[in-house]
């Protein structure tokens, strides 16, 4: 994820250029064939690696699942090292999905705003440093976010939570019962900051690709800048923004250290999002692995398999959405 | 969605530099297990009585609860015996026993004695013998708290059980007030922290609650925390730092973490004439009350958590070194024996106190020394 977010570091190179020129020449020269074989080989290697991971996870997972005394999908407990082993992923799946969704709800609108500001409002002198700063956020290691979250964010969220409790406490999910803010909602806020750079930089990249003619045509018709954005930029960039969000979601689903440092993990689902407790797949693997026995490790691998499948589904869904939108915008 | 190729390439290059940079940095940063400064200020005794036999590398792994003791012992021992390299990895008790049973290590550190099936398995590794437990490090598990204006808090097992089971959730609860007649208890919510990872500390703490407050603690003792509710954090370092920064917090961890973070600890009303404080000496007194349940050379201990002996602090953790009584590998046996002889010796035990651990009481220490001397 970090790799692709660095994409935005460089200014867009001139359209066309030498790459397209070279491609039009004869396709049978040795260099082309070597390159074809190389890239095909890399592609196949990738599939083999993915398959190997899936096989490894499945094999190890089945051995633990066959010994599990609880229901793997509904049990609210994780005592995989006990006799008998009892473990279930209900809490982990809930925590992973909920914290990621909160992160998306916060991050995506903000990221689109920043991307639009950089691509269409800010003067060039401000836009470049600003995009660098945003990209720098991606370079901060997650453990640093974790420490910042635990030492700064958590002690300072009490005020916000009390405010949420005052106005939205009646909903139940925003009820706040004092105590440290080491909850799924805090994780959501932290994850939102962490996925901001990837969503922003890909969105900005896409917004910059809007055909100038469309924008100019809209301006010629007397549209304001906001109307240009609404009618030309946003529809054009929609599929890009969706794929950017999915990249961000992928990162949020798998985030480990920051969550493990900030959350107060427990195997229960609180009624309120602001109550400490819950857990995510990756956090649980990181914090349970070192004291795990053989079955315990396999059980964690089984939970890892679920995360693997979940991430595949998210990415697959993103592909589907983009494929559909592409026809619409083309 | 047409991202420029050049951009991609440049991004990959950026990424590659970032990743390799990170790897180089982490390679430098971690794994400083060669002794170093992490021994918590324990004194290095002159190594006059250390006998060096054997040479080469000695691998061991296991309990992280005895990490600080091991670090100091290894440092002292290696200062005296230049030919022996000892490498103890604090991977956790479970992993330590597994590695021992796979024959990868000379001995394992463990917070709990070997289970019967593990003893059976150990017979395949140590030919002609079996794995035995040698208690070598004891230590009080302190109950640390942070309540503004309250010093010298006294609690008993029953109240502790109710606090950690979230049945008592205010500091001015009558049950607490009854035990602390002179204290000004605030109207503050109790934030009870437990370990989120599986831990021998949790195991011992819940064993104590079960033994001393059966009615108020309906859960079976285990390494994983059973009750719902409360807050949690990872490792002793995690829970102790939460207690340090949260008003109204209470949690359990090894005494050294309380000393290091200047956290007030609870005095226990055990039924003895005066409330007992968590100190190394008081823990040693509780270990002296323990029964040896192992047979032969095996010295597995059963602590009497419900003890009412004067000055005995019952929430005490004993961690073992697990070795084979016979059939240890010929190449590591001499080094193992001389190291274990050192740590079981008076010199070895007396350095423990500075680290917040409890030296073994004389009677048990003698038995451990006999067992170590007879290892083959």
TrEMBL record, chain A:
Gene Ontology terms describing biological process: phosphate ion transport
Membrane association type: Multi-pass membrane protein
GO cellular component, one term: plasma membrane
Keyword NAD attributed: no
Gene Ontology molecular function: any one: phosphate transmembrane transporter activity
Source taxon at top rank: Bacteria
Subcellular location as annotated: Cell membrane
Start and end residues of each stretch annotated as Disordered: 1-26
Residues annotated as transmembrane: 43-65, 85-118, 130-154, 184-207, 299-322
Domain ABC transmembrane type-1: 93-318
Pfam families for this protein: BPD_transp_1
Keywords: Cell membrane, Membrane, Phosphate transport, Transmembrane, Transmembrane helix, Transport
InterPro entries: MetI-like, MetI-like_sf, Phosphate_PstC, Phosphate_Transport_Permease
Functional summary from the UniProt entry: Part of the binding-protein-dependent transport system for phosphate; probably responsible for the translocation of the substrate across the membrane.
Family: Belongs to the binding-protein-dependent transport system permease family. CysTW subfamily.
PANTHER family linked: PHOSPHATE TRANSPORT SYSTEM PERMEASE PROTEIN PST, PHOSPHATE TRANSPORT SYSTEM PERMEASE PROTEIN PSTC
Protein name: Phosphate transport system permease protein
Species of the source: Streptomyces albireticuli
Gene that specifies this protein: pstC
From TrEMBL, chain B:
Source organism of the structure: Streptomyces albireticuli
Protein name (record): Phosphate-binding protein
Domain PBP, first and last residues per copy: 54-346
Entry keyword Amino-acid biosynthesis: no
MF-aspect GO terms: phosphate ion binding
The family this protein is said to belong to: Belongs to the PstS family.
Gene Ontology biological-process annotations: phosphate ion transmembrane transport
Cross-referenced Gene3D superfamilies: Periplasmic binding protein-like II (3.40.190.10)
First and last residue of the signal peptide: 1-27
SUPFAM superfamilies: Periplasmic binding protein-like II
Binding-site positions, phosphate: 63-65, 93, 111, 199-201
